[in-house]
Design brief:
single chain, alpha/beta, TIM Barrel, M1 Pyruvate Kinase, Domain 3, Pyruvate Kinase, Chain: A, domain 1, 3 domains, 8-stranded parallel β-barrel, 21 strands, disordered C terminus
Length: about 475
C-alpha cells in the first residue's frame, strides 16, 4: 500500500478517535502522522495512544509518524466575581497582582513576568482576542488600561501579549515532564509551543537529546522576527494559524503563511499548515467551499503537511474529515496547473554535495522520464534534500532505521521503506529496482534514478547517482 499524493496529512487523536479501530481507519483514509495533544492528554493516556499507533503500524506494515504537541506556558487572568464582568469600550480597567477576585473595573493577573515587560502602549488580548486592552500607565505591578474592544470577562481566560517578548521559557514545568515522558515512549516528533526566539528551540533540543525531532510552532509575532534562526534550529516548522491569528491582525496571517512556507522550504525543513482547515467538519459531514480552498492553497504552496485538529480529535466525522482532506490534496496534485505552480516555487540548490546530488537526481529523472527517484539514507537528510527540489515523480526512501522512516513520514513526497542495508553496488541497484516494482511505483522496463552514499551505510555520504532499468518481467519479485 502506498499514497499517490505528495503532501502528508497530520491527524490529531482525541476522544473521538483514540481507539485501535479509529486509528486504523484514519490511516487507511489517508493520515500519515498522528498528533497527541499534550494539553489534553495525561501520561497514561499518551502511553495508551502511542501503543495503539504502534500496533496499527505493525498490522499495516507501513511506518507511521507520531508527534507529541507540548502545551507551552498558559497565561490567564485570575478569578472574577460571579464568573462574569462586562467591560465596555472606552472604560478604564486595571490588571494587578492582587489575589482578590475581579470585577468590572479590575482583575487579578497572577503573572509577574507580564508586568516586568509591559509599558504604556502595550496591547493585552483576553479570551483569544475577544477583549482588547491598551496599557496607558504602569506602576508597581499594576497596569492601568483602556478597553479598546469590550465584552464579557469570566474567570481564568487566556491572556496574550503580542507586542513584547516575555521573560519566559517555552517550556513550563508541565511541558518538561511531558517532554521527558513522550521522549522515553519513543515519539518521532515533539512540537514546541510558545516559541519566541531561537534559544527556545535550542533549550528543547538539549532536553530531548536526539530522542525525537523538534518541530517549532510559529504562533507569536516575536518568532516572526527571529524566523530564519528558528528554522535553522528546528527540524520542522508549523504555521500555527490559530494563535498567530490572535496575536496578529487576521488579515496578516495568509501572507505570513506563505512567507513561512517559502523560508522553510528553502531551508529544506518540513512545514506544516495547521488550525481550522476543515473546522466545519467538527459538526458537519462536508466542509465549506472556503475551507476546501484553504486546504488547496496550502497544497499548491508546496507545504509538506496539512493538519486536522478538533476535526479528527473530537469531531463527529473524524474519518470523513481525513478522507475529505485526502480527496482535496489528490485533486490539487492532479490539476494540470499544479506542476507549473510547484516548479515556479523551486529553490536554488545550496552549495553542498547533498544538494548537488538531489538537484541532479531531479533533473535526470525529468530528462529520462524516470518512474521514481530512490534514495538510500540512514539519517534521512538525503530524502529531505531530494524532497526540497519537489520532483513530480515519487521519491522512495530506503533506510535500515525505523526511526528515520517514521520521522520522514511528515515530509513531502517521501514514501519510506525500512529494509536492511545494501553491501555493494550491484545489490544497491537490484534492491532499488525490486522495491519500486513491488510497491507498484514502476513497471518492468521503466527507468529509475538512484542516490546513495559510498561506502554504503555511512551517514551523510551521499555521493552516487545512478540510472537503472526496472526488471521483473511482469512478476512480483521476492524481498531479500
Amino acid at each position: 500500500m502506498h499514497r499517490d499524493r505528495k503532501v502528508k496529512i497530520l491527524a490529531t487523536l482525541g476522544p473521538a478517535s483514540a481507539s485501535p479501530e479509529m486509528i486504523r481507519g484514519l490511516f487507511l483514509a489517508g493520515a500519515d502522522v498522528f498528533r497527541i495533544n499534550m494539553s489534553h492528554t495525561s501520561h497514561e493516556s499518551a502511553t495508551e495512544i502511542y501503543n495503539m499507533i504502534r500496533a496499527a503500524e505493525a498490522e499495516l506494515d507501513r511506518p507511521i509518524g507520531i508527534l507529541a504537541d507540548l502545551q507551552g506556558p498558559k497565561l490567564r487572568i485570575g478569578e472574577v466575581t460571579d464568573n462574569c464582568a462586562v467591560l465596555t469600550e472606552g472604560q478604564s480597567f486595571v490588571l494587578d497582582l492582587e489575589p482578590q477576585a475581579g470585577n468590572a473595573t479590575r482583575a487579578p493577573l497572577p503573572h509577574p513576568e507580564i508586568f516586568a515587560v509591559l509599558k504604556p502602549g502595550s496591547t493585552l488580548l483576553i479570551d483569544d482576542g475577544r477583549i482588547r486592552l491598551n496599557v496607558v500607565n504602569m506602576e508597581n505591578g499594576r497596569a492601568e488600561t483602556i478597553v479598546i474592544v469590550g465584552g464579557t470577562l469570566s474567570s481564568r481566560k487566556g491572556v496574550n501579549v503580542p507586542d513584547v517578548v516575555l521573560p519566559l521559557s517555552a517550556l513550563s514545568p508541565k511541558d518538561r515532564a511531558d517532554l521527558e515522558h513522550v521522549s522515553k515512549l519513543g515519539v518521532d516528533w515533539i512540537a514546541l509551543s510558545f516559541v519566541q526566539r531561537y534559544e527556545d528551540v535550542e533549550e528543547a533540543r538539549r532536553l530531548i537529546s536526539g530522542r525525537a525531532a523538534v518541530l517549532a510552532k510559529i504562533e507569536k509575532p516575536s518568532a516572526l522576527e527571529d524566523l530564519t534562526k528558528i528554522i535553522e534550529a528546528s527540524d520542522a516548522i508549523m504555521v500555527a494559524r490559530g494563535d498567530l491569528g490572535v496575536e496578529l491582525p487576521v488579515e496578516h496571517v495568509p501572507g505570513w503563511q506563505k512567507q513561512i512556507t517559502r523560508v522553510a522550504r528553502a531551508a529544506g525543513k518540513p512545514v506544516v499548515i495547521a488550525t481550522q482547515m476543515l473546522e466545519s467538519m467538527i459538526e458537519a459531514p462536508i466542509p465549506t467551499r472556503a475551507e476546501v480552498s484553504d486546504v488547496a492553497t496550502a497544497v499548491y504552496d508546496g507545504a509538506d503537511a496539512i493538519m486536522l485538529s478538533a476535526e479528527s480529535a473530537s469531531g463527529k466525522y473524524p474519518v470523513a474529515a481525513v478522507t475529505m482532506m485526502n480527496r482535496i490534496a489528490c485533486r490539487v496534485e492532479s490539476d494540470p496547473n499544479y506542476a507549473s505552480t510547484v516548479a515556479g516555487l523551486r529553490n536554488p540548490p545550496q552549495s553542498t554535495p547533498a544538494d548537488a546530488i538531489a538537484e541532479a537526481a531531479h533533473a535526470v529523472a525529468d530528462t529520462v522520464h524516470a518512474a521514481a527517484i530512490v534514495s538510500y539514507t540512514n539519517s534521512g537528510s538525503t530524502g529531505l534534500r531530494v524532497a526540497r527540489t519537489r520532483p513530480l515523480v515519487p521519491i522512495i526512501v530506503l533506510t535500515s532505521r525505523i526511526g528515520t522512516a517514521r520521522r520522514l513520514s511528515l515530509a513531502w513526497g517521501l514514501h519510506c521503506i525500512c529494509t536492511v542495508d545494501v553491501r555493494d553496488f550491484h545489490e544497491m541497484v537490484d534492491k532499488a529496482s525490486r522495491m519500486v516494482f513491488q510497491e507498484r511505483f514502476a513497471r518492468s522496463g521503466q527507468r529509475i534514478v538512484i542516490t546513495a552514499g559510498v561506502p554504503f551505510g555511512t551517514p551523510g555520504a551521499t555521493n552516487v547517482l545512478h540510472i537503472a532499468m526496472v526488471g521483473g518481467g511482469g512478476q512480483r519479485p521476492e524481498l531479500p
